[in-house]
Description:
Elements: H1 4-16, H2 25-40, H3 50-54, H4 57-80, H5 85-99, H6 102-105
Helix pairs in contact: 2-4
The structure holds magnesium ion.
The site of magnesium ion has 5 residues, from helix 2 and helix 4.
Amino acid sequence: MITKETLNRIYSFRESRDWSKFHTPKDLSVAISIESAELLQYFLWNNKNSDDIKSDFKILEGIHEEIADILIYLIYLAKELDLDMDTILCDKVEKNSDKYPVSKCKGSCKKYTEL
Ligand SMILES: [Mg+2]
């Protein structure tokens, strides 16, 4: 999980620049989508697997940056909506556990509606 210290660093970065006034839920959601598209650039026109990526420092560094961008905007969005990141993540894992019981989905990539 993300530590309180890390969250506070992220919030402090934004507050010291007076940027929260720009961070509406809509604009943060747009930013998340844009950063997600930037992440996809590393997978366009290739079939690199995890080992391929891990052995290419330049690509790995770029993916590292985009994951950070996405996570930071997600953290800001959650804060703007008074949502707790740990709760969000734990709630979703719980829901997914119900949707995808190990007995039905182990080794399968089918959607829960097709299990
Ligand atoms: Mg980016």
